Amino acid sequence: MRGVTASTAALVAAPDPVHRQRPRHCPDGQYVTFVRGQNSFNHHYLNAKLRYYRAFRTRWPDLEAWFTESLAERTGRLPGESFHRPSFSTSHRARTYLGLRGYATFDYRWMFAVGQLRVHDQAALLGIDPGTQMLVEEAVALGYNRPSAKQAMHWSVARIALHNGLTDVADITGDHVAEVLEAIRLFPEDPEFASFYPSAQQFYEGPAKSWITHLHQLEVVLFHRGQVATQPRKLMPSWKPPLTLPPRMLAVAQKWLAARKLTDAPSTVDKLELAVRTFCRWLEANHPAITTFADVTRDHCLGWIGHIAEAPTEKTGKPLGVMSRIQRISGLSQFFRDTALWQYPDVPGHTLIGAGDAPKFPQKVPRFIPDHELDQLMPAIDAIACPFQRAALLVARWSGARRTEIQRLPMDCLDRYPDGTARLRLSGRKTYKERVVPLHEDAATALQNVIDLRRNAPERPFTDERTGEEIRYLFMSHGKLLSTFYLFETPIQDACKAVGLVRPGGRDGTGRGTVSAHRFRHTVGTQLAERGAKLHTIMKVLGHTSVSMALVYAQVSDQEVLRDYRAVLGPGATIAGPAAEELRNGALPNASVDWLKTNFFKTELELGRCLRLPAEGPCECDLYLTCAKFVTTPEYAPWLRTRRRVEQTLALDAAERGWDREVERHRCTSQRIEKLLADLNEPVEEL
């Protein structure tokens, strides 16, 4: 950046930042006295400053006229020009004069074009202390590097002060920071932008990125001071253009999005807005005569659905994926449904598309981590140096919690059950329901270490945007929440590479880890199901609100499927029952065997399995022990013995009551079970 000095005298005698005074020159004697009073051995330099000042006043006797000049002339020296040969030397050489004593405040576009402003150097000459150094010290206390904090506070405070005429950092608010961010975002739209930066992309990825980082650090410090009300978020300038639609369509879209913001998360509203945006962009290109949603038909919607399924996107050059298309279609469907229900004007008044118009997304089996990979991975996780990353991954491994739930754990998240088992309290981020789950001691120990590190942290509590509750979060550094990328993605990739669990790919060409942090959640759910946990327990631990979500884990692991499959359909299996002979002799047609293999879980009964095929219709036989389609294995022997004892008890009870036919029925069932146990080479009574 081009380094120049500029006076910070705008910090004193400040005009009202809302009703700014008309810019004017300061009295001649005041500036001359200021320059003559500087302690400098270079008198030629001081005399030159006065010459530059007088030349500037001669060129613009009315300071307000200078503000109407082109940005290039006001800036003076353009990028690439020599310090000694600027295009507009009068403005360039008078920069140390501009802003003296608050007689003028300055626009951000000029400050962005000028580049670096050594405002605090001039402030020191004037004996002015706006309190910037105090902000630096507070940033260092939050964990920021001192040189980085100094650069961020000086850059941000200087520009906000020169623009608003502030005299004290205590007067800076979140609105001031937001104003600078908006000015950065809009600067590439300035007609003279190209004179200072080669492209918007270069600006956003270069200086703008640094400036936004500076402002973010200032906002974090101001938040913990109590000068900013909301939790700071680091946002890059948006590349998304404003929503431009015909007036009647724009009014409806904005009204609907404003209503959705009242109940939906910001990320959800962004997706809804994107659905409307892409649909209206397609309408503009293909049906420009449509200026109101009331003229939109189902055929228009179907045409758009076909378009997004085939048209390549700018980012990848490929059509949208299935999930992205589902989100777009769902968002547009909700738009028409809501506006019809809420009786908006200028809309069709009924739903034009629904879920049936979206592509189907295949239901995937949870990808749990096999035991042998866990055995390799866990020592690498235990060896992670960062206590935050190690604790986050261990909690994910042993609790099955979502990553955002772990990221937002409060300081008081850990306690103990009466028997001493560690207990973790998880906030209801996604489900709005708080829950507690038991926690393995390894994870509890790692979590307690982080709690001890953070016990005396200086941060101000954050306000949960969903509950309004003030919370001191555990996983914080530099005055803000640690990202899920830092807590999970970075360390799990490093651990995978350390133990060789990689597949080809990755940005640096060194491979991509085969395990993600989310797979720990699948692993906990699968292990609970394999070991006989109740469905309610799985739902409770994983925070599921519907049975269907937890039922995914009831499919059990591949190993469990394989073991049961081989017990009945595998070669040489020990089986008994009327259907056993057909299986042994290969009498079942290949199509029937294929169906049984594919739908094996659907065949299970209390004491065995039913091999009845769909073509044979529903089974009408209650006494399935004698059904020709019944088969059982030694695995069911304990249940067969229990059922035999029940039948014998019922036979004795029936005999006492004189119910001879019931006695005969229960004894026949008991004898049938004894025959099944004999065929399975199992004893009738437990040994």
Q: Work out the helix count.
A: 29
Q: Distance N terminus to C terminus?
A: 87 Å
Number of strands: 13
Which descriptor suits the 3D outline? elongated
Q: Which regions have little confidence, pLDDT < 50, spanning 5+ residues?
A: 1-19, 617-622
Task: Please give a structural write-up.
With 687 residues, the protein is mainly α. Helices cover 50% and strands 5% of the residues. The protein contains 29 helices and 13 strands. A three-stranded antiparallel beta sheet has the order 3-4-5. Helix 18 (387-399) packs across helix 21. The radius of gyration is 37 Å and the shape is elongated. The chain starts with a strand and ends in an 8-residue tail after the last helix. The model is unreliable at 1-19 and 617-622 (pLDDT under 50).
In short:
With 687 residues, the protein is mostly helical. The chain has 29 helices and 13 strands.
Layout of strands and helices, then pairs:
Layout: E1 3-4, H1 28-36, H2 43-59, H3 63-67, H4 71-75, H5 89-93, H6 108-114, E2 116-117, H7 119-126, H8 132-141, H9 146-164, H10 174-186, H11 200-205, H12 207-225, H13 247-261, H14 266-286, H15 298-310, H16 322-341, H17 371-382, H18 387-399, H19 403-407, E3 414-416, E4 422-426, E5 435-439, H20 441-454, E6 462-463, E7 470-471, E8 476-477, E9 480-481, H21 484-499, E10 502-503, E11 512-513, H22 518-530, H23 535-542, H24 547-551, H25 558-569, H26 580-585, H27 590-598, E12 609-610, E13 630-631, H28 637-656, H29 660-679
Parallel strand pairs: 1-2
Antiparallel strand pairs: 3-4, 4-5, 6-7, 8-9, 10-11, 12-13
